[in-house]
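Minutes, structural biology subgroup

Action item carried over from last meeting: produce the structure token record for Carnitine O-acetyltransferase (Tepidamorphus gemmatus). EB confirmed the sequence was re-checked against the source entry. Recorded below for completeness.
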Amino acid sequence: MSSESLRYDNNGKIVLGQIYNEPDPRAYYSTLRQLDYVIPDEAAPVFRELVAARRQMRGSPELSLLDLGCSYGVNAAILKHGVALDTLYRRYDDAQLREVDPGTLAAIDHEFYAARVADPHLEIKGLDVAERAVGYAVAASILDDGLARDLESGPLPPRDGEAIAGADMVISTGCIGYVTDRTLQRLIELGEAGEGPPWMAHFVLRMFPPEPFDAMFEAHGYVTETLPVTFRQRRFASAEEREHVLDNLSALGLDPVGREADGWYHAEFRLSRPRKDAEELPLARIVRH
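Output recorded by EB:
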């Protein structure tokens, strides 16, 4: 990836928007592989522990997740279909699959994922602004269902809300900070009007201040817990990107030593739940680090 061609957003991150809404995921996986993007693998063991805990509290194996910022369904591929991230990287770099058109690839993927359902009691729906990415993940049977909408601009119409209602847990591995507390509040309100308030399980880059989210969660009777460790997201694409992030962290009073100073984005894990659930089963008893 040539540093001369990189553009940066207001947060100092390189702009990769061109890979997130292609007709198929080949450019997405090819680009992120170059950056050692690992957060879905880092997050998976935590999500699996939370799925087990949520099932225990509900007394049922049936569970519904909503993946916020789902893109092409990478979290669903790992959690529901049991496909490792490295396998996904190698799959979409396969010489034969590189040559087919997007429609043919979606048909091939449909057979691949439909035959690999590691957790048949886990339903995973996706929500993302990238219409083609969500559409591909649904067509390829990676996601059970998906919706391409922007909750930052307004609430969902009733029909759209019905499509993603009933989630027991909302998960994400990188979109928080780009979506604000407005989106999360609308998802909570959707749950409150339906099956009940969902757990919120998010991996959040450290450069995004948590206070606006914490205040919103508290207003809805949620308690937020964090793990005492951080999780790698990806390597910095350039020295300039690294300096942007270190400046952001300095402004927040955060020490990058052993984390971002070593060349990687780092994320915190934040679990927000209704107070009753948090008191009955604290995060420290679900995920041990």
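Discussion: Residues 126 and 146 are 4 Å apart (CA to CA).
Next step: EB to file the record with the rest of the batch.
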